[in-house]
Amino acid sequence: FRRGRAPPRPADARRAPATMGKHSKNSNDRAFFSYHERKAASYGRLSSAMLGGHNTADGNHQSHGWGTMQRTLDGDAMKEIDACSLSLQACVNPVVTANGILYDKQVIVEYILSRKKELERELHAWEAQEAGVVADAASEEQEAQQVRIDEFVAQQEGLSQSDLSSRTGKTVATASTMGRSLLSSDTGTHAPDTSFWVPQLTPQARTTLKKPDTTVRCPITAKPLRLKQLTAVKFTRLDESKDLRGQIAKERYMCPLSKRPLSNVHPAAVLRPSGMVVSTQCIKDCIKKDMIDPFTEPPVKLREKDIITLRVEGTGFASKTDEKALVVSSESRPVARF
Length: 338
Hints:
- By secondary structure, the chain is of the alpha+beta class.
- It has 5 helices and 13 strands.
- Among the domains are: 31-77 and 328-338, no CATH class; 94-106 and 217-327, no CATH class.
- It has helices spanning 35-43, 105-157, 161-168, 170-180, 280-290; strands spanning 69-72, 94-96, 102-104, 231-232, 236-237, 253-254, 261-262, 268-271, 277-279, 292-293, 300-301, 307-309, 328-331.
- Belongs to the NOSIP family.
């Protein structure tokens, strides 16, 4: 043996090689909850790489896990610029409100009529409730008046207070006796709530209706909606004679001034006198300089409220999508306690 070195140990005395694997992503060796463990608990097995899973075809909405499941709607869920806000289909006869909400005329007329009938039913139900309240108050007043009359008659007849109580308490005593006969432990004055099966003592849960708002409101903005305030909209179709194979399939209309296609990327506005749809860039560069509608004959002077900006939901990207349009669908699930 070489000087300074210990002799080798026998084979059976050698230390066995380390077989412990990687535990950095396991939930059994730390006192805190790691990022990967929290992700697995929040989104489920299929979305956690530590569990050998991957995102499913549901996009960024996982169907397994704990906690509230959320996902942001992508661009395919965004309404197109020419789609009705109720039917979500391309408008056949488009009309727009003063707030820029686009509807198909047939759809919005049906909505207004059905909403008026619904409000009428709610109003009749509220009126019936109020009539019932008045009737109950009158009945209670009549009963109180009858009690006063009985007391007056008893005093005139010379009856004592005990005789009067025995005469007026017959109906109440009968109801109490019916309930007390089934409860052997009840030796004192019978409580009405313990004899709920007796018709005279049955509790009632009443639903109080609020006075309905008889105004038909826009289903999107909740502002008053009237049919006579809707403005007919005229879209300008793209020139079909040109080669449009490079255009996006969803771009069906264009600005009549700049010839640029209109979509959620390129928003537009409606000129109230003519109903023409013009891009907002042309409104800013051309229309607002003279404030004249060039599509009417003769040209009409415009006011600020005559320029209605169409409400668009965006493309699904943060730079082109309104914050209110980033709708998130949620689903409640059991929550993991950390």
